[in-house]
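WARN retry 2 of 3 for item q-0093 after timeout on previous attempt; input resubmitted unchanged.
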Amino acid sequence: MTGSFHRSVIVGAVLTVLGLAAGYYASLIPQGAEGGIGGARIFPYIASGAILVCGILELLSGLRRQDTSPLRLTDIPGEIASLLAIAIGYVWLVSKLGYLIATGLIAPLAMLLFGIRNPPGLMAAAILCPAIYHLIFFELLGVFPPFGEWFDLLDILQGS
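OK item q-0093 returned
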């Protein structure tokens, strides 16, 4: 190889670092009564592990190739940049407005990004996604819901 790397090497390296960072931050999530890696940590650990494995596979794939075409900013499709912006906005909204409102606002945007254009379907996503995810994660699995700094709908719904 010459002085530049195949774009797969760069993407793989970035994913590997993100997977490691996500795993580290998942380890900072307080343990529940069950201890170990279960409870609130299990899904972040699974996600960080998947990102790490994909990053390593992509890195190794790139190292085996002879093509050294550089990665350019124009190689990143608009959909990926949009999804990243939605994800960052979602994390910020969850921290400020709580899980239910943030999910209700972001779910239709994600559906739009993936091609859903039906207004009743988008409205249904705004209502059903937060309700179904809340039921699965916070009620059935017992994961602690993130509460909003400014306002949280759960305070009203739970009478707090």
